Amino acid sequence: MIDLHTHILPGVDDGVPTLEAAIDFARVAVQAGTRTIVATPHYRDGFYMNPREQVLEGVRALNAALREAAVDVVVLPGAEVHVCSDLIERVKSRHAPTLADNGKTVLFELSMSQYPVDLENLVFQMRLAGLQVLFAHPERIRYFQEDVKRYEAVLRLGAFGQITTGSVLGVFGESIEEFSEELVRKGLVHVVASDAHNTRGRPPVLNDAVARIAGWIGDAHALKMATDVPQAFLEARDPELPPPPPPPKRSILSRWLRGGE
Fold it and tell me: pTM, whole model, 2 decimals?
């Protein structure tokens, strides 16, 4: 599986603090079936500024340490890029990182609680500039929670959505879990990722959430959200998104990933 949104890069934001912790983080991910991790540190004015060159350097050093520690995983560069007025210019100038450094795919973050200004126009301009827009955790954004039609509007402009494992599993509360299920069942989110910050409270584990999603929309589509779809984003391709099938009575994948429970 591919984890498209993590904070594994050590010491650069509110995620993993040290190189040793990053190696432990990667081991947990591998044990849960992940083979590719995208390092997406926060890129946000006034909080954490992680320009592309620094992220690339950090990822090179982390991959070297993982090889030395015999951890069988590949870390790719990226960032969780917070909304800003000159976002397009920052991406085009190669200051703001893109997923897999492909120069196109932006993991796009909004404030959890503050309303964005003229969001539809910004997404339209990003698409017009040839950028691929992937919203980070839309299920946790109040602007979308209060009116899902706002989210549907940006999807119609060509944006995509990444749902977080903790949201699917109820870590952030029942209302967010219910909203997550609604988005998944309606096909309004397209990739599942951990948004992991550590190995305990917010761990880099995809399989439990994939199993839960499989119970909602079926095994094949749930697996694609952690394999084929994220691979397309890494390659800056729009993924093929068939409508999710009706949920089965029992999910084989759910039983397997949860150890037969």
Answer: 0.92
Q: Are strands 74-77 and 191-193 parallel, antiparallel or unpaired?
A: unpaired
The total number of residues shown for the chain amounts to 261
Q: What is the tens place of the pLDDT at every residue in 140-193? A: 999 999 999 999 999 999 999 999 999 999 999 999 999 999 999 999 999 999
Backbone dihedral angles phi then psi of residue 57, each to the nearest 5 degrees: -65, -45
* Cα distances (angstroms) measured from residue 129 to each of 88, 123, 188: 7, 10, 23
Structure tokens at 228: 């084929």
160 touches 132 (CB < 8 A): yes
State the CB neighbour count (10 A cutoff) for residue 14.
Answer: 12
The DSSP string of 115-183 is: PPSSHHHHHHHHHHTT-EEEEE-GGG-HHHHS-HHHHHHHHHTT-EEEEEHHHHTTTT-HHHHHHHHHH
CA 36, 225, 91: angle at the middle one, nearest 5? 65
Residue with tokens 């870390």: 75
For residue 208, give the DSSP letter: H
Q: Measure the CA angle with vertex 233, ends 229 and 238; round to 5°.
A: 80
